[in-house]
Design goal:
The structure holds 2 protein chains of 2 kinds.
Chain A: H1 2-10, H2 18-34, E1 41-47, E2 54-55, E3 62-63, E4 79-85, E5 98-101, E6 108-110, H3 113-125, E7 133-139, H4 144-156, E8 166-172
Parallel strand pairs in A: 4-7, 7-8
Antiparallel strand pairs in A: 2-3, 4-5, 5-6
Helix pairs in contact in A: 3-4
Chain B: H1 2-6, H2 14-30, E1 51-52, E2 61-66, E3 72-74, E4 77-79, H3 81-96, E5 109-117, H4 123-135, E6 138-146
Parallel strand pairs in B: 2-5, 5-6
Antiparallel strand pairs in B: 2-3, 3-4
Helix pairs in contact in B: 3-4
Chain lengths: 180, 152
């Protein structure tokens, strides 16, 4: 009887974990080596319909890329135009040196995004502001980061309840964007 | 003799295996398998008010990486802008037709285009991509940015 007990205990099933551990360590090494925590990215959600022909009140001039087709009546959308100004002769032609609010050459010019923010706040604080869309005109050589500064300023604005503004980006041919 | 055999130096591997599996589980959970679609070499613009991604209600996303030179990169490979977006628009249209069979080519698509452009990219390169997307019916865009400068 004693012999039987001894045999049983010797024949116990022993799982060899070494192979499994090897595999687990290989997997672990793979995950450690490929692990690269990505920086937390944010985003600005915008709805960008294609630019439509617009007519500034009292002016027979189209702003935007698409001129009205023959026989087509341009839509009279009151538009606020924000233009980024750069200088091709400067060391950094990709930088926006100033911002013009209104039509190019006729609007108010501000120097920094903060000033732009203050001006836009004044405009949008007025409950009878007539604007229905905003067009941001960007010279083709200006960097994307400069546009994003303006988009950020725009997203910070508080509009009167129920009011919605559409936003469009328009590329300004570089010759047309001289700037100061 | 029998005692010696029984006290052979066999380490108990079960706890270490448990720990390793826990580590593997951790790394698998924190790993973002979709990160392959994101070009991590891009330096995104810094915008303080950029909101964290809210994927609720999003049907599908089209991620477009635009590098400094204006190349459209998809999974690390440069792609021609027009033909790539046209192909994606076609695929999105077919998918969207399951919900709305009346949808025609050029109609507004429910997909959100995620623009991941390098901060130093000249605007005309980004504009070319946005314009092409608009041509094929994409209207909703998400402009990616960092909330703060990396390493600060």
């Amino acid at each position: 009887m004693a012999r039987r007990k001894g045999r049983r205990s010797k024949a116990e099933v022993e799982l060899n974990l070494a192979a499994m551990l090897d595999m687990a360590f290989q997997l672990l090494t793979f995950f450690i080596l490929t692990f690269k925590p990505a920086p937390v990215e944010g985003q600005i959600n915008v709805r960008l319909p294609p630019p439509v022909p617009v007519l500034q009140p009292g002016k027979q001039r189209d702003i935007g890329e698409m001129a009205p087709k023959e026989g087509e009546v341009p839509r009279g959308v009151n538009t606020l135009v924000i233009t980024l100004n750069n200088n091709l002769q400067s060391k950094d032609p990709g930088r926006a040196l100033s911002y013009t609010i209104g039509e190019y050459g006729e609007g108010t010019q501000v120097g920094t995004p903060e000033q732009l923010n203050n001006r836009l706040r004044e405009i949008f604080a007025n409950p009878i502001n007539p604007f229905e869309q905003v067009i941001i005109q960007v010279p083709s050589r200006v960097r994307y980061a400069e546009l994003m500064k303006v988009v950020e300023v725009f997203t910070r604005q508080k509009l009167p309840a129920g009011k919605k503004l559409s936003l469009s980006f328009v590329e300004l041919p570089q010759e047309a964007a001289g700037g100061p | 003799m029998a005692e010696l055999e029984q006290s052979e130096g066999k380490p108990n591997l079960t706890p270490i295996l448990d720990m390793v599996f826990q580590l593997i589980t951790f790394f698998m959970l924190v790993m973002n398998f979709k990160a392959g679609a994101l070009d991590t070499s891009l330096r995104l613009p810094v915008v303080g008010s950029a909101r964290a991604v809210d994927a609720q209600g999003q049907t599908s996303l089209l991620i477009l990486n635009i590098d400094k030179q204006g190349n459209l990169n998809v999974y690390g490979q440069p792609r021609p802008v027009d033909s790539y977006i046209a192909g994606e628009a076609q695929a999105e249209l077919l998918a969207a037709r399951r919900q709305n069979p009346k949808l025609q080519f050029g109609d507004e698509l429910p997909t959100t285009v995620v623009i991941r452009a390098d901060r130093a990219t000249e605007y005309h390169m980004v504009h070319r991509v946005i314009e092409t997307c608009q041509k094929y019916g994409f209207r909703n865009f998400a402009l990616k940015a960092l909330n703060k400068e990396e390493g600060t």
